[in-house]
């Protein structure tokens, strides 16, 4: 397993969009939502920064229920 590190904002957004998330709002953060097959709604956000910090990436992984390997 690789090591997590800060990623460019555009790459994080691309990962979310490629996994079925839809941008629903862009205010202080860009908000993304996805409805799972069992009807749950997953919500996550990406800050308006050129680089997304490791702390935020870990938060996005938990909220999006995506494998950590997609963000390495």
What does this structure look like?
With about 70 residues, the protein is of the alpha+beta class. The protein has one domain (about 5-65): Hypothetical protein (Metal Transport, Frataxin, Chain A), CATH 3.30.920.30. Helix content is about 30%, strand content about 30%. It is built from two helices and five strands. It has helices at about 10-20, 55-65, and strands spanning about 5-10, 20-25, 30-35, 40-45, 50. The strands form two sheets. A three-stranded antiparallel sheet has the order 2-3-4. Strands 1-5 form a two-stranded antiparallel ribbon. The chain is globular and about 30 Å long. The chain starts with 6 loop residues before the first strand and ends in an 8-residue tail after the last helix.
List the helices and strands and how they pair.
Blueprint: E1 7-8, H1 9-18, E2 22-26, E3 29-35, E4 41-47, E5 51-52, H2 54-64
Structural class: alpha+beta
- Total helix count? 2
Mind telling me the CATH class? Answer: Alpha Beta
Biggest beta-sheet profile: 3 strands, antiparallel
Query: Low-confidence spans: pLDDT under 50, at least 5 residues?
Result: none
Please tell me the overall pLDDT: 93
Helix content: 25-40%
Brief description of this entry?
The chain has 72 residues and is an alpha+beta fold.
Which tags fit this structure?
single chain, 72 residues, alpha+beta, Metal Transport, Frataxin, Chain A, three-stranded antiparallel beta sheet, two-stranded antiparallel sheet, 32% strand, globular
